């Protein structure tokens, strides 16, 4: 894979016993890999999968018997992992971040339904800020960014220095001076 448009003009690689054809796009483990290292198509397919997953559980989420907290848990447990599969490798631009937030707001708006004005009795859609107040969880972009950290560092406790360094919460002095190390 290369960012250079002219790279890869050779359409096959030949070895002693085999010949490998060049592919423009490859689907591997539910992810689309392109020769341009484009994340846009991968995010687009993840959002399609998340939308399909939402439509599968739509009857459960639209039930009036379910409490809103349970609907939020269903969203976090079933829909978000489908969308976020492989997000550790995504390098997000503002455009992709916006697309992810739009998807999340659409799912939340469908989940929480319309709101009724008490004075006039008219129904209206919830605004994004109202959805975020009810949802009370970080948005999808804020979930992705820590996932991009190495998993073992992300699982460390807040006492560990490397964890505090990565999340930007360094305070005070180190308790002891570490030994000098080669860089």
Q: Can you walk through the features of this model?
A:
The chain has 183 residues and is mainly α. It has one domain. It contains eight helices and six strands; from the N terminus they run E-E-E-E-H-H-H-H-E-E-H-H-H-H. It has helices spanning 40-56, 58-61, 68-84, 94-112, 128-135, 140-147, 151-154, 161-167; strands at 12-14, 19-21, 25-28, 31-34, 115-116, 123-124. The strands form three sheets. Strands 1-2 form a two-stranded antiparallel ribbon. Helix 1 packs antiparallel against helix 3 (68-84), helix 1 (40-56) runs parallel beside helix 4 (94-112) and helix 4 crosses helix 5. The radius of gyration is 23 Å and the shape is flat. It starts with 11 loop residues before the first strand and ends in a 16-residue tail after the last helix. The model has no long low-confidence stretch (mean pLDDT 77).
Which labels suit this protein?
single chain; 183 residues; mainly alpha; 10% strand
What can be said about this structure in brief?
By secondary structure, this protein is mostly helical. The protein has eight helices and six strands, in the order ββββααααββαααα.
- Please compute the radius of gyration using only Cα atoms: 23 Å
On the 0 to 100 scale, the average pLDDT is 77
Count of individual helical segments: 8
Portion in strands: 5-15%
| SSE arrangement, N to C | EEEEHHHHEEHHHH
Care to count the β-strands?
A: 6
Oligomer: single chain
Tally of separate domains = 1
Poorly predicted runs: none
Shape: flat
Structural class: mainly alpha
* Helix percentage: 40-55%
- Biggest sheet record: 2 strands, antiparallel
The end-to-end span amounts to: 31 Å
**What strand order characterises the main sheet?**
1-2
